[in-house]
Amino acid sequence: MDDFSLDGGDTFEPTVDIAETGPCSRTLTITVPASVVDERLEMQLGTLVSEAALPGFRKGRVPRKLLERRFGADVRSETRGQIVSSAYEKALTTSELQVIGDPDFGDMESIKDLEPGKDYVFSVSLEIVPNFELPELDGVPVTKPIMEVTDEHVEGEILRTRYRFGTPSQITGPFEPLDRMVGSVRIHIEDAEEPFFENERAVAVVPAAEDEGKGQFLGLLVEDLSDHLAGKNVGDEITFVTLGPESHEREDIRGKKLKIFFQVADAERVAPLELKEMVEQFGLDDESGLQGQIRLSLEARRDSEQRNAEREQVYEWLLENIEFELPPKVSEAQSAGMIEQQRLEMTHRGLDEDTIELQLAKIRGESEKASRNRLRLMFIMARLSKHFEIEVTEAEVNARISEIAASRGARPEAIRTELAKSGQIREISMSIQHSKSADRIVDTAKVTEMPADEWNKLVDAKAAAKA
User: Fold this and answer.
1) Over the stretch 376-385, which tens digit does the pLDDT of each residue have?
2) What CA–CA distance (Å, rounded) separates 11 from 4?
3) What are the backbone angles phi and psi of residue 173, rounded to the nearest 5°?
4) 212-222 per-position pLDDT tens digit
5) Does domain 15-128 have CATH number 3.30.70.1050?
6) Among 72, 130, 249, 308, which lies 20 to 30 A Cα-Cα from 194?
7) 145 DSSP β-pair partners
8) Sequence ranges of the chain with CATH classification 3.10.50.40
9) pTM, entire model
10) How far is residue 155's CA from residue 110's CA, in Å, rounded to a whole number?
11) Which SS3 state, helix, strand or coil, does residue 105 take?
């Protein structure tokens, strides 16, 4: 919003009183001087007098009193909006408050109008970034999982890659694990007659055997998805019920019963790429060259996952050692931003699209406590980035975009355009910033090494205990 000026170019300064109404909430009482009110009203009326044209009068010749009588209320209302906007922006600048979400001015139609010759006073309620102290950050205990990439790992990755680049063929059913289907979907909230969501090209995948029946559908984690999809055929309408996650970014479905109608139109099954063709596609001479390249790729992914495991322990330690209250009205936009940041982070780690969507569905299905912890962590990492004076360069952002493009088999320019349109460039920058802040703590941590299989058992046990 643009500031306005008095004649002569002197900008006004409102008086601001700040009342603490909670750990993360403030109410600003803002007073605009009567001289500013009068000057702005006169400016608006002067513009109206010079521009107005009414039947029987030439432009600029309409009597002022007639214009005031006919348009005075509208002029005062418009001027009030300009004064409130400008005064609020100035109040934020002088107060240096870090505001979350949108300000609450109350019902603008019910607040008092401007009165010539009188100060204008209004109030606005805000939620602000929590304030908290950072603990000592040196010597944080961290376990580093150690894993050697074996021939078995290499062969397993080759098989997965063969399926990824395999040849899909149309099928009619019965559907088996990993079969992919497309169809129209309607989702109803509770027992509503009208659907709240419809899509003609929804995608569903029968969960793999190791997923124990769980799978994601339209971003929702469905515990028994395999029971509903396996054995069905093209043309079937599949009906099932799931619950909207309590921490979903869309508030209108949280905790609600969702009835899903999925009409299968097409389906396909992938035949894995022949090993010889895969060697040729990778531009290699023989299978041993392919194995070597896959091994290098797995070792790079292992190193990335190793570092990520260390960061996750830092995040957990920070949550345990920093206490503060979250703003009571954490917005949907922040929840959605958190989801997108997780998506970009997993893409950077080289996870395939189906795995990412499944993990995001699990995040949406987390308990309210886990979801709020993720939001708390966003505030902590933002504070740490400021504490460590972490900067993110354009080159780092471009490198991350190139990595995402490589994982999708797309051109970096196309991915950048896509991310810019959806406003996700900022999410990439934040993800890099937070990772660099966590790495600062890992670099001074007290590190203990542990075989990866033992580490995975500990992680699984911890997750089971939380569940």
Assistant:
1) 888 899 899 9
2) 7
3) 120, 180
4) 888 888 888 88
5) yes
6) 249
7) 450
8) 167-271
9) 0.63
10) 70
11) coil
What pLDDT, in 10s, does the model give residues 234-255? 999 999 998 887 766 677 788 8
Q: How is domain 141-160+286-466 classified at the CATH fold level?
A: Trigger factor, domain 2 (1.10.3120)
More confident residue, 457 or 145: 145
Which residues contact residue 74 at a Cβ distance below 8 angstroms, ignoring those fewer than 6 apart?
none
pLDDT computed for residue 269 by the predictor = 93
Between these two residues, 466 and 83, which has the higher pLDDT value? 83
Digit-coded pLDDT (tens) for 243-294: 887 766 677 788 889 999 999 999 999 899 999 999 988 888 889 999 999 9
Please give the Cα distance from 188 to 50 (Å, whole number). 56
One-letter amino acid identity for 451?
A: P
| Residues 6+ positions from 450 with CB-CB distance below 8 Å | 143, 144, 145, 146, 458
Say how far apart CA 467 and CA 462 lie, in whole Å: 9
| Look-up of token digits 């419809």 | 198
Residue intervals of the chain classified under CATH 1.10.3120 are 141-160+286-466
CATH architecture of 167-271: Roll (3.10)
- C-alpha 388 chain-centroid distance: 24
In 325-451, which ranges are continuous DSSP H helix?
332-348, 353-364, 368-387, 394-408, 412-421, 425-443
Report d(CA 61, CA 53) in Å as an integer: 8
CA separation for the pair 354, 381 (Å, rounded): 28
The lowest-confidence range among 85-89, 406-410, 452-456 is 406-410
Q: Which of 310, 240, 289, 287 shows the shortest CA–CA distance to 450?
A: 310
Of 246, 177, 241, 242, the C-alpha closest to 212 is 177
Portions of the chain given CATH number 3.30.70.1050: 15-128
Distances (CA, A) of 69 to 53, 86, 113, 117, 377: 15, 27, 16, 19, 56
Rounded to the nearest angstrom, the gap between the alpha carbon of residue 155 and the centroid of all alpha carbons in its chain is 36
